Amino acid sequence: MKAGHKCLLFYFTLVSVTFLCHGKDPFFNDDDNLILPGFYNIPWMAAIEDYLSLSLITIPGSHDSMALYGVAKCQAWSLQDQLRAGIRFLDLKVFGLGDTLYVMHGVMYQHSTLKDVLDTVRAFLTEFKTEAVLIRVQPESFEKDTVNHMVQSLIGDDKNVWVDSGMPNIGQVRGRIVFLQKSTFTLGIPLIETNGKNIKEVTDVKDKDNRLIKQLNQATEAWGGYNVVLTFSSGSGIGTFWGMFLTPKRVAERVNPWLNQYLKQFYPNQHRPGFGVIAMDFPGIDLIQTVINLNW
Known about the structure:
Blueprint: H1 3-22, E1 59-62, H2 79-85, E2 89-97, E3 100-105, E4 108-113, H3 114-127, E5 132-139, H4 144-155, E6 161-162, H5 170-173, E7 176-181, E8 189-193, H6 205-222, E9 228-232, H7 248-264, E10 277-280, H8 285-292
Parallel strand pairs: 1-2, 1-10, 2-5, 5-7, 6-7, 7-8, 8-9, 9-10
Antiparallel strand pairs: 2-3, 3-4
Helix pairs in contact: 2-3, 7-8
C-alpha cells in the first residue's frame, strides 16, 4: 500500500473512532447508543474525599431524566446509560394513580414507574458502591400531598436511601440514593434553584446563554451551604410564538457547546468555583466530564 493511502486510511480510522466515542458532537448527544471510551472512569466519585460535604461537589445531572419519548423529549440515553456516563442527579416528574407513581413528561407517560427508576439506580449503586445518586421528585397530580407517603412506602426501611434534611458528607452517602426536597415534596435535603424570569422558556438562544451566566453566578454564591443548589441549562421555545421550533433538543444542540466553553474558562484557576448540580438536556460525554473535572 502506498504511503499516501496509508495516511488516508489512518485518517479515516481516527475519524471513525472519534465518531464512535463521541457521536457527532462531544458536548451534545442525541444518539441512544452509549459507547464509552475504554479509559472512561465510571465511578468518578471514588476520587472525592469522604469528609467533603455533598454541597461542595459540582455534579452533572439530567433535566427531565426519563423524558425519552415524545416530540419534546429531553434525553437520548436510557437511565442506566446516563448513570454510566457520569450523571448523578435525576429530575423526575411523577403522577400518582392508585398505589403507583408513574414517571411523566407533561401529559405523556414515559414507560416507567418510580419503582422502576429506583430499582435501576439501586442496581447501579450495587455495582459502583463509591457513588451516590441524587433524586428530585416533582408531583404532577392533584394528589401532591400523598406523594410523600407513596414514596416513603416505596422505599420502606431501606437504609441505603437518604431522606434526612441534614447535609451529609460524601462518605455518608456512598452507595445510597439521596432524595432532595422542595415545595410539595418533603423528603431529603433542602433544594434551592437558581432563578430568573421564565428560565426554561427560550425564544432566543443567545439570551438563554446570558441568563445561564447569571444563574451560574447565583449558584457559585449559594454553593457550599446547607442546601443543594440546582441550575437547569435546559430550555424550550415550544408554546411560544418566536421560539415554536426551539425544541429541547435544538436548544441543547446550541447551548451545550457554549456551556462547555464557559465552564472551561475556570480550569486555570487554582481554586475552581463550585456550581452544585447542573442539570442538562442531551449532554455529551465531554460536557459531562467538563462538569466533573471542576471538582479536581
